[in-house]
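Hey, sorry to bother you again with one of my protein questions. A protein chain has come my way and I'm curious about its shape. It would help a lot if you went through both lines with me. I owe you a coffee for this, so here goes:
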Amino acid sequence: MRARARARRHALLVAALVCALGGTTRADGPPPVEVHSSVDKSPITIGTLFRLTVEVSAAPGTEIVLTQPTEKIGDFDIVDFGDLPPREADGKRIVSRWYQLAGYTPGNHLVKSPPVFYRVAGEELKEGPTDEALIEIESLLARPGAGTELRDIKGPEAVPIDWRPYYLAAGAALALLALALVLYRTLNRPKRQALAPPPPPAHLVAYQELERLRGRRLIELGAFKDYYSGLSAIVRTYLERRFTVRAPEMTTEEFLLATARQGVLERAHRALLGEFLAESDLVKFARHLPTIDDSERAFVAARRFVDETREDRATASPPAEELRAAG
């Protein structure tokens, strides 16, 4: 997981965290959104975990949408993250997100905060300002006396006892005991009833659900939120059945970080899934209004994701043929 997290590419994905802030915004007042980044300690040694906190303060009546990197922020690996309880100060609402990071390159690093989007009542979604935090990574070898001085030769040590024969004897005894237990249970187990037929493959169920969603004609009725909610649910349920990941119970950023840590998806598939889920979250939670072409493209992306991650992709027949055979 750490080797993948050190790759120089990361996708910024929209976390659907919408903060409704009461009141109205004065046209001649201060900027509606301010961003401040800070670290809990400096300097930091190589590989030491530290916390980067990003605070977003907004004028009353402003909605905030934070974005969430999946693997890295600048040159630093993301180990964990979370949100602090919202608070008020100087007439503004402040929301904060913290990141537990680790770095492995000595020197000074200027880290830019993840993008923030906001919307003032009656206006379109806009990108807000960013902030930068200076983080110093200190090498342990640069410290005085850090393993560079010569030491005297150690004296002779006693010959250790060779425990390997005892370990082999104990292992052989345990193996014989386990074999005897397996044979006993095999010979004395009751006859089982006929097994139920196996459930249909996860990709076949997803194809059927996608066709059923298309048949509801939600795009033509203008029910884009219901359409994207159904499309997102089909993809998440497929991921749970295909990779045993509790996708329906996670937020978008939690799920994407879990797939990166567990390595169940290739980077290209994780990027495709991130773009699809980010667009779905904008429609469901940020009141984004897509076009018909956007909706059709989202359907094609969901279908393509199932096609490219299905378990029997190398030898199976095309999806249309499988649907006809299942019907």
